[in-house]
Amino acid sequence: xxxxxxxxxxxxxxxxxxxxxxxxxxxxxxxxxxxxxxxxxxxxxxxxxxxxxxxxxxxxxxxxxxxxxxxxxxxxxxxxxxxxxxxxxxxxxxxxxxxxxxxxxxxxxxxxxxxxxxxxxxxxxxxxxxxxxxxxxxxxxxxxxxxxxxxxxxxxxxxxxxxxxxxxxxxxxxxxxxxxxxxxxxxxxxxxxxxxxxxxxxxxxxxxxxxxxxxxxxxxxxxxxxxxxxxxxxxxxxxxxxxxxxxxxxxxxxxxxxxxxxxxxxxxxxxxxxxxxxxxxxxxxxxxxxxxxxxxxxxxxxxxxxxxxxxxxxxxxxxxxxxxxxxxxxxxxxxxxxxxxxxxxxxxxxxxxxxxxxxxxxxxxxxxxxxxxxxxxx
Length: 378
Hints:
The chain has 13 helices and 17 strands. It has helices at about 40-50, 85-90, 95-115, 130-135, 140-145, 180-190, 230-250, 260-265, 265-270, 295-315, 320-335, 345-360, 365; strands at about 5-10, 15, 20-25, 30-35, 60-65, 70-75, 120, 150-155, 155-160, 170, 175, 195-200, 210, 215, 225, 270-280, 285-290. The strands form 5 sheets. Strands 1, 2, 3, 4, 5 and 6 form a 6-stranded antiparallel beta sheet that branches. Helix 3 (about 95-115) runs parallel beside helix 10, helix 7 (about 230-250) runs parallel beside helix 11 (about 320-335) and helix 11 (about 320-335) packs antiparallel against helix 12 (about 345-360).
């Protein structure tokens, strides 16, 4: 900082491949983002412009092509240690009135914009980054799993995932099956069809770090015409699994400004109680306690009741929401983290959650907000 130029810079933060730098200059509070991917920067500029017509977003003051990438200078919203994001409202022991009011406002805004802009669209016309592009040949599904085989859970259940389909799964007392290869084929085929998709103008990646408090939308490279079921599945899975458990576990450095997230991992991390293979009956017994903090359950309940249900009643009356959400949920489970690189315990829980999602008994109204309860008696 210098008194002559009234300039303050830093600290630098890294998020995935991007760098974020707070800059105060001549009374302006900026957040300068550097991205190496020029195509992604162009998508972000377009996404910001499309979103700004319907949602509150920070102003984009400037964008500049530089060697190796792009710089984008945004208005920096008020923030502080454990302040400024939906994440911070979730990092409490009990849901506050502030959280409930925030979620009601979020749901109301989304409901209005989605129902105003909703239309059926060819998959080629919508944002493809988080789903379609990950299913194409050479996409993330291939990068993670093509030609790969690994144990269900090293040292716990050492059966290869390629043989899961030969076993019956007993998960918390419920019978399921999961054919690993068939599931990957089904996902690739689902996202290879040209069947029209219900889509609307949304941010596309509505995570608790991409939603500011007071309410505003951040991060725009997936903003635009997005699949509505994909938008819903993304928020619900992130709030119930990724945001409170997996992301702080595997990328704790991303929470340098929101360290309370790390204190709440235990409250959101499922706990395995039983995991064993019965070779005589070809059955895998997996009992786990699904843990989710009360604020996250409250956020999901509001989102479901005030956004998902009313939109579904308008657009898909009489359609099973499980069938609409299933492919998007399965993609979020499989194509965010490479399951083979997770701890055996975390991999086992995610495979169990995938099996539950693929089951004909899958009920999204309860799947995303399971209450902690004892597993069946051993």
